Amino acid sequence: MFQAFLIKYGEIGIKGKNRHLFEEALMQQIRHALKDVDGEFEVTREQGRIYVEAAAELDYEEALERLQRVFGIVGICPVVIAEDKGFEKLAEDVIAYLKERYGGRPMTFKVQTRRARKDYPIPSMEVNAALGERILQAFPQMKVDVHQPELLLNVEIRKKINIYSDVIPGPGGMPVGTSGKGTLLLSGGIDSPVAGYMIAKRGVTVNAVYFHAPPYTSDRAKQKVVDLAKIVARYAGPITLKIVNFTEIQMYIYEKCPHEELTIIMRRYMMRIAEHFAKESASLGLITGESIGQVASQTMQSLAATDEVCRMPVYRPLIGFDKQEIIDVSERIGTYETSILPYEDCCTIFVAKHPVTKPNVKVIRRSEEKLKERIDEMVKTAIETAETVEVE
Amino acid sequence: MEAYFDNSATTRCSDSVRELMGKVCSEDYGNPSSMHRMGVAGERYIREAKERIAKTLKAREDELIFTSGGTEANNLALIGTAMANRRSGTHLVTTKIEHPSVEGPMKFLEEQGFSVTYLDVDGDGRIFLDQLEEAVTPDTILVSIMYVNNEIGAAEPIGQAVSAAKGKNPSVLFHTDAIQAYGKYQICPKRLGIDLMSVSGHKIHGPKGSGFLYVKEKTKIKPILFGGGQQKGMRSGTENVAGIAGLGLAAKEAYEGFSEKQDRLYRLKEAFLSGLAGEPWAHVNGRTGRDSAPHIVSLSVDGVRSEVLLHALEDRQIYVSSGSACASNKPAASRTLQAIQVRRPYLESTVRISFCPENTEEEVEYCLRNLKELVPMLQKYTRQ
To answer: Of B197, B230, B254, which closes a domain?
Structure first.
């Protein structure tokens, strides 16, 4: 039935002279999202609206699903396209549309016509009135309500005529690629993929770093992280994932530092390494999935202690979320099932029974002094030997 | 050096088996049910496989049903006989250490109104014969006891178990899951009094997706798959001709030079065990002599989690498994290890080493050397 979509976008409409940049980015994201969906889609912009038209038989369900994952889209209107062959034909087409879409259910309605083509012989107001009359004739059970109609029937007269009445909600947010780049510390858990999703929703292009610790973490744990990155990439677009071998550093910290400080010191080194890759990829910040107080390493004191080692801003989109709220998002975006697969990740293998919850930065720094003999070289090796995986 | 010591999970397909299967796939690919000569050619492979397998069991060719592997054979044996004999009784007996492909159907049958008794085992994983005898009642229709346990290599006293069960109730059917035993033991089901026996192809250097159920003639059993009526209606579905041919050849090869191969496996196992003797961190579960399976060692290691040891060995091209491969994606503790009451920490720090006749003394040495190097190192890093 539908051959096209009219894309509604919100926030980016108000961005002044940058507006067309945002629109371009959105169009590009839409093209990317639809590139392997049946329909040979053409994405065009016309008078502040984006149209996605299928030049061939389209896979409607799949196309809609993909569009619902493109950040920046507020609403998706499935459109029926009719040839302009005079008013009589238009009235027939509209009635056929209503019949197929709503089956003549009793409801209040309003017709809203827009003429993009001002050479159309009948003014919009008159088209509204005339079409309204025809609809009432065809469906006597329907009623006109121009203030709060249940059904708002849009008729847009362009080269061809677009008929639509549904607005399916999009994900909102901003098109990826309009807000710069960020580097996500991705683990195999529930939180970090959600953090990646949330930051991408604000238009940020996401890169990721994963720390693995063979033999303590397995190849399956690594595969799980790649799989999670793939799911996030469905929303965020292609992700460059760095996989850092962290075992040696972890063992060294284990040997030299007090056990209850292990996690915090480990996280400080993760931040240092992640910052290196962030700079390398011209990121503007680091992104983590932490939320205040969730575990010992996520108290405000611990977060302050981890942030202290890097100069880049650290973005934590989940900072005020409860665990259940994070789980809800992860279920909605499809990462949850993968996140809960039972492979150990390197943050949990050596967790002390009673880790520090209020680390004193001075004390932590003093502990790190004990590492100075070999740690720089180890960090360097970890960076140099990191594996790069392009995830799409 | 590489040492593949996970042969109870699966084995390398032998070259001759692979060649034969390739020939079936690309030349003799006819459907055995087809009337023309291509069909006849396909059927010939099946007949040949039956002959080869029947010979290893001293059984009749029409006592074999080909399946998609051990899991299907166990499902067919248990569900098929329970359904066919439910008028005679609704009670089944099995053990607490069966493979999930026996445990699963048993749980299903419980939901269908059957009752199941799960037998205990001793610290070596062997059943108590008096407990078995006590469990069998006039209402018992089936006893299922595995021949060799897949996790610790305990060999059950199958002959005595059959006598105990049938002595109490002569009409009871006896099934054994011989998936870890076939090819490692000479098994003559008829002499032992076994009515049903499950075997898998890929544990004996045959292909995955192949297996069979031995069903003694005149045993009452119903199919669990329905369709075109292949294999006398007992297992519908076009026969996996290549798989069956491969299975047949693998079976034949497994029993060629059998005593030498069995002895070789025992010697590998003994070399491995004696190499561990005196290591304070090594604890071997179950019996270790020639009254245990020739190819399986269950090793608990003090203070090192099995997953960690497994990956550390993997890094040295040594492949073992934690628990049994079929259960190792689940975080739950092994039922077998619980049943033999290993010390609690060992539930998380037990690996299985399993040999095949292709393994060498050098590989065993290599593995021992690495274990002795890795374990003390890994023990240093633990959760405190």
So the answer is: B254
Do residue B312 and residue A349 have CB atoms under 8 angstroms apart? no
Which pTM does this prediction carry?
Answer: 0.82
Q: Is B134 left (phi over 0), alpha (psi -120 to 50) or beta?
A: alpha
**A231 and A127 share a domain?**
no
Range of the domain at A378: 181-391
B135, two tokens: 């469990």
Q: Does A349 touch chain B (CB under 8 A)?
A: yes
What are the pLDDT digits (tens) for B129-184? Answer: 999 999 999 999 999 999 999 999 999 999 999 999 999 999 999 999 999 999 99
Token code pair at residue A327: 């789980």
CB < 8 Å to B309, chain A: 215
- Quick check: B330 contacting A, CB < 8 Å? yes
Note the pLDDT tens digit of each residue in A223-272.
999 999 999 999 999 999 999 999 999 999 988 999 888 889 999 999 99
Domain of B128, CATH number, reads: 3.40.640.10
State the catalytic residue, choosing from B188, B326, B356, B367.
B326
CB contact B307 to A (< 8 Å): yes
- ipTM for the whole predicted complex goes beyond 0.85: no
Q: Do A215 and B310 touch (CB under 8 A)?
A: yes
Interface probe with B: pick from A348, A349, A354, most Cβ of B within 10 Å: A349
Please give, rounded to a whole number of angstroms, the shortest distance from the CA of A154 to a CA of chain B.
54
Question: Within a domain: residue A38?
Answer: yes
Q: Is B13 part of the annotated catalytic residue set?
A: no
